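name: query_chain
kind: protein
chains: 1
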Amino acid sequence: MNKLLTLIAVAIILPISVFATEGPYKVKDLDISAGLGIGTYESGDISIPPIGISVEYGFHELFSVGGYLGYLRMGEDFFSLGDKMEWSYSHTIVAARGSMHFNKWLTPIHKLDGLDIYTGVMIGFDFQSVNLDYDGPSNPYINDYDDTDMDLLFSVHAGAKYMFNENWGAFAELGYGIAYLTVGLNYKM
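structure:
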């Protein structure tokens, strides 16, 4: 039994120690993250899944600033009283964001090389576009519909990045962006 536990411990620790880097967040680093969103507040058939891209520059040992771009497209074909209708919705977020990195405050017991834990805020614009196409005989009660709206967006986020080597890593981030949870890859320059 002890041999099995030792083997399991080595199997877990060895990959972490081989792939981990020292100090994942550094001043003057440029982090580029791209991920897919999980869990949106929209309903319908997703034609383009929630995609989030962020770029942040480390200007202080605790803080980074940058930008965010998110996009989602949904649509659905349906029939109403025998007439075909097509509904589509697109959602785009363009924002500035800043993050605070907590690794400096983690004790060595809790610190894992390659792990960057952060939280931050985002402010920007939230663009929505809705389109309804009616493909049937002329009907005075049903018309094509197009509308575009823009709202001011204020959001918070919390996440973690784990760097596999000096340049590549993975991240998971919770917050109100294009989705509630975004997971993906991170590239550090």
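note: The chain has one domain: 2-188.
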